[in-house]
Write a structure and sequence with these properties.
- It contains eight helices and twelve strands.
- By secondary structure, it is an alpha+beta fold.
- The strands form two sheets. Strands 1, 2, 3, 4, 7, 8, 9 and 10 form an eight-stranded mixed β-sheet that branches. A four-stranded mixed β-sheet has the order 11-6-5-12.
- Helix 4 crosses helix 5 and helix 6 runs antiparallel to helix 7.
- It is globular.
């Protein structure tokens, strides 16, 4: 294709979004469709884990539009941080450090991820930011399934740091969310994926299609940034038969 303008071309990592202004920099008008609560504005979102599943996207957001496959270049997926919800739901394993949830981080240009792309109404952004409280947010331009550059900038939830969490939310919330579970570090390179959640992500990717499934196995890493999920599951095949408890079957069933 043609040369991309500025620094948003292939191999670029985009720019960081503030969690304080509702991602206004990437609002765009919905092309003359409908007049709901927020008549004209949507943002693009990139799904790379459970949000690879359209069902999962639609149960997370109420206004999903234009759900489709895309590609995010120069990022890799990592299971590198602890999500307290897994401890609260009883699906994380503290003793074996199988606690990690999923994020993405900037990587070299040869890393590329098959992702889902969709739009949500801007009225949902505030709740989205609040829910994803441990992440940083980057504005990136993905590729569409046909390889062309998307016409829209999308938000992707990326790796952050414990210092950023404390700066954003305060020491008290940090202790309340993590300390009470005996956790003194959110972003931790010595942990392993929460098994039930890992299985859910693999199934979600495979449900999108084979290419997305393969991308998940080969372009997702443990927190060591060396071991791929394919290698990890070769060593621990039992993870793929670990069913979530019945109460979470809908949420983590890979539907």
């Amino acid at each position: 294709g043609t040369m991309s303008p500025g620094n948003a071309g292939k191999g670029s990592h985009g720019f960081e979004l503030s969690r304080r202004n509702g991602f206004k920099e990437i609002w765009r008008s919905r092309d003359g469709e409908g007049t709901r609560a927020d008549p004209n504005h949507v943002i693009g979102v990139i799904g790379y884990g459970s949000l690879l599943s359209e069902n999962s996207a639609r149960s997370t957001f109420n206004s999903v539009q234009n759900f489709r496959q895309g590609r995010l270049n120069s990022y890799r997926r990592v299971f590198a941080h602890i999500a307290p919800i897994f401890l609260e739901q009883g699906i994380a394993k503290l003793e074996t450090k199988e606690l990690a949830s999923l994020s993405v981080e900037k990587a070299s240009p040869e890393e590329t991820l098959v992702v889902s792309l969709f739009d949500i109404d801007v009225s949902e952004v505030e709740a989205f930011i609040a829910r994803e409280d441990e992440y940083a947010f980057m504005a990136v331009v993905p590729e569409e399934a046909n390889g062309s550059r998307s016409s829209a900038t999308h938000v992707v939830c990326t790796c952050s740091t414990d210092a950023n969490f404390i700066a954003n939310h305060g020491e008290e919330k940090y202790i309340e969310r993590y300390g009470r579970h005996g956790i003194d570090k959110i972003w931790d390179d010595s942990i392993f994926p929460c098994p039930v959640y890992l299985r859910h992500c693999v199934l979600s990717a495979q449900k999108l299609n084979e290419e997305a499934g393969e991308s998940f196995l080969d372009h997702t890493y443990l927190a060591d940034r060396k071991t791929t999920i394919r290698e990890y599951l070769d060593e621990h095949p039992e993870i793929l038969s670990m069913m979530p408890p019945p109460s979470l079957a809908q949420r983590y069933g890979g539907h």
